[in-house]
Specification:
Radius of gyration of chain A: 17 Å
Order of helices and strands of chain A: HHEEEEEEHEEEEEEEH
Shape of chain B: elongated
Largest sheet of chain B: 6 strands, mixed, barrel
Helix content of chain B: 40-55%
CATH architecture of chain A: Clam
Oligomer: heterodimer
Strand content of chain A: over 45%
Number of strands of chain B: 12
Largest sheet of chain A: 13 strands, antiparallel
Structural class of chain B: alpha+beta
CATH superfamily of chain A: Lipoprotein localisation LolA/LolB/LppX
Number of helices of chain B: 14
Distance between the termini of chain B: 35 Å
CATH class of chain A: Mainly Beta
Order of helices and strands of chain B: HHEHEEHEEHEEEHEHEHHHHEHEHH
Strand order of the largest sheet of chain B: 2-3-8-5-7-6
CATH topology of chain A: outer membrane lipoprotein receptor (LolB), chain A
Number of helices of chain A: 4
Number of strands of chain A: 13
Strand content of chain B: 15-25%
Radius of gyration of chain B: 31 Å
Largest interface: A-B, 24 and 28 residues
Helix content of chain A: 10-25%
Strand order of the largest sheet of chain A: 6-5-4-3-2-1-13-12-11-10-9-8-7
Number of domains of chain B: 2
Distance between the termini of chain A: 26 Å
């Protein structure tokens, strides 16, 4: 199995999980995760952060290897060029050429926004170890464009480090997550990750454009669009180190 | 002896020859003394409360930490003893109340907000008597034991996080390897505290639960001990430090919160300065009154000297006069102060300026504290300084040349 880019996957799958009681639902979620999971990938993508009165875009390149390792580097705009993020398991480092320092993101900042987007550092760094921290239930099955779509409700376990009351996923039979909704504990929708475009890329069907929207302010969203992606590229372990975060060798 | 009683009688009568002047002087002294004591008791009440509130939040009159913990209060600096070892060490000695706690900085997040807090892993059974809030006053319930899976946060924090009892929040902190340690907790209770700022600062979880989350076995970051009186912790300090070696730092509360310690120490100095300042203002009136009394009676004093009264007796008479004046003034002033403070001891509501007071760590009700020591101090200072101030006019009176004094126009 291969994946388009780790960040994407992490974003998508962070709050997902394999389950305990409902075998079908758990398997569907598991398959969706596996669809993204790959040996390695290289991709370029554009992240657009939209607010009511402004909007900015960043182009980034991203390398991923396995579940735990990812490296993201900003290409555009020029003033942000070279800013990077490295994740290893739950840990995260950031590098800015302006201050020429690699900083480990402390736990106190993991809840904060990643590069000013609507994704938090947590969203970016969490991997599927959180899979086991949810109960999954198949809510509904429907057919859209002659493909089966599963609605799955995922409820975090009592001691899971998840703030949401429940999450609802719409997963297509080809393992594409169409929609991922986050509800608070009063069952009010807080934010939603929507897949806007699905295309063949790097030899696979993947979601190429996804948007995270805040429910109480539809004018605030962050969009990730994949420009190019290569799978199963040969990446050395040394790429995912702090020294490589600081000194790009490409 | 007979001499003294004559002098006393002379002084007393002289005092009331011009009773209007005497009464004015008496009221000046009384008001001055009242101000000394009343103001002192207000400040003392405030400081006392601040100190005891802060000690409750600290908490512990004597605390044991890893030597580096105070500079770097992270889980990387835990106590070198396990809870079981501590238990063995201290229980045998029948120490007063003590407990071990896990104290780490953490981030608490709800669906919408996140805030930095100090996470306290406590054993509620060990420390229910000395927390800064009454465990029975918790909305919902407090933790039941060290193994409780719930979390208790302040009411204000819950409001900030837009969450409430029965909901889950996520605590995120770092383990000893600086990796992220996190866990979801269900809120089981909300506490209220005075001052309100405390409500946002601390979150309580079971000690064992916290230790499991951090992966530190049964090790805590601090052991806290309570004595009977926070003013006298030396005995407790000796007892605790006698049991421990150099691998830990044993500290008294005022070494941990030096601001508070200094504040308490400065308080006594402040009281003294305040009393002296008021007295200085008073002394001008006193000396003036005495000088006037002497001037009015120059011929009379001359006559007494001529009749054979010794200059020392004249000196004594004037001083007795001033002492009588001061004593009566003090008595009235002290009584006034006592009578005004007593009804206010239930507390003065100053919630109008509560926010400002909170910045100083004081709460919105001010409890004046009547302190016998302050009253004695004020009275003694007034008497001694009054004596010194009256020396000069009295000395002048006793130095008159009888003939000149009698013939003085």
């Amino acid at each position: 199995m291969r994946r388009p880019n780790a960040l994407f996957i992490l974003l998508l799958l962070a709050p997902l999980a394999a389950a305990s009681d409902d075998v079908d639902a758990r398997q569907i979620v598991r398959n969706a995760i596996d669809h993204w999971r790959g040996i390695s990938s290289y991709s370029e993508m554009t992240m657009t952060i939209h607010r009511a009165d402004w909007e900015r875009s960043m182009t980034m390149s991203a390398w991923t290897k396995g579940q735990d390792h990812s490296l993201v580097r900003v290409l555009e705009p020029k003033k942000d060029r070279g800013n990077g993020t490295l994740t290893d398991d739950k840990s995260m480092w950031s590098y800015s050429p302006k201050i020429n320092r690699v900083i480990k993101i402390p736990s106190s900042m993991m809840g904060q926004s990643w590069m000013g987007s609507d994704f938090s550092n947590n969203d970016v760094s969490r991997t599927d170890e959180i899979v086991d921290e949810y109960d999954h239930r198949l809510l509904d099955t429907s057919v859209v464009d002659s493909m089966t779509v599963y609605d799955i409700e995922s409820i975090p376990l009592e001691d899971a480090a998840v703030v949401w009351g429940r999450e609802v996923l719409r997963i297509r039979e080809d393992h594409i997550v169409l929609e991922h909704s986050f509800f608070d504990q009063d069952n009010v929708l807080v934010k939603q990750l929507k897949t806007l475009d699905i295309a063949e890329m790097g030899g696979r069907t993947v979601a190429t454009r996804q948007r995270m929207i805040k429910a109480d302010d539809p004018d605030e969203w962050t969009e990730l669009a994949v420009l190019t992606v290569d799978y199963d590229v040969d990446l050395p372990d040394s790429l995912f180190t702090r020294s490589s975060l600081r000194n790009p060798r490409d | 002896m007979r001499m003294l009683s004559i002098l006393l009688r002379l002084a007393w009568r002289n005092l009331w020859r011009n009773h209007r002047r005497t009464i004015i002087m008496l009221s000046a002294i009384a008001v001055g003394v009242w101000a000394m004591i009343f103001m002192t008791s207000l400040t003392r009440g405030m400081v006392d409360q601040m100190v005891s509130d802060s000690i409750k939040v600290l908490p512990g009159h004597v605390q044991v930490h890893h030597p580096d913990f105070l500079d770097d209060p992270s889980i990387g600096n835990p106590l070198p003893y396990s809870d079981a070892t501590l238990q063995q060490m201290f229980v045998a000695l029948e120490l007063p109340e003590w407990a071990s706690r896990v104290r780490v900085p953490a981030v608490v997040s709800s669906e919408r907000e996140s805030r930095a807090v100090t996470l306290l892993g406590v054993d509620p059974l060990a420390e229910q008597h000395f927390s800064f809030f009454d465990y029975t006053q918790v909305e919902g319930r407090f933790l039941e034991d060290a193994n409780d899976q719930g979390i208790v946060i302040g009411k204000k924090l819950a409001a900030t996080l837009e969450t409430g009892p029965g909901k889950r929040i996520v605590i995120m902190t770092q383990d000893p390897e600086n990796e992220i340690a996190d866990r979801g907790f269900r809120i089981v209770g909300l506490y209220t505290a005075d001052p309100v700022s405390v409500e946002e600062a601390y979150a309580y979880v079971g000690r064992t639960t916290a230790q499991a989350m951090l992966g530190i076995g049964d090790v805590s970051t601090e052991a806290i001990f309570f004595g009977d009186d926070y003013r006298n912790v030396e005995g407790l300090y000796q007892e605790v430090s006698g049991l421990l070696d150099d691998s830990v730092a044993v500290q008294r509360w005022y070494e941990i919160d030096t601001y508070l310690g200094t504040m308490l120490k400065t308080m006594d100095g402040f009281v003294l300065v305040w009393i002296i300042v008021i007295f200085l203002a008073l002394s001008f009136g006193l000396v003036n009154t005495l000088v006037m009394a002497v001037f009015e009676r120059v011929r009379e004093i001359g006559l007494m000297l001529a009749l054979g009264m010794k200059p020392a007796a004249i000196l004594g008479q004037i001083i007795i006069e001033s002492m009588l004046l001061l004593t009566i003034g003090l008595a009235i002033g002290n009584f006034l102060a006592w009578a005004t403070i007593l009804p206010l001891e239930g507390g003065i509501d100053i919630s109008v300026v509560a926010q400002g007071m909170e910045m100083m760590g004081a709460s919105s009700v001010l409890y004046p504290k009547f302190h016998v020591g302050d009253m004695t101090l004020a009275s003694t200072i007034v008497l001694i300084l009054g004596f010194l101030a009256s020396l000069s006019p009295a000395w002048r009176a006793s130095r008159y040349e009888p003939v000149e004094a009698i013939t003085k126009v």
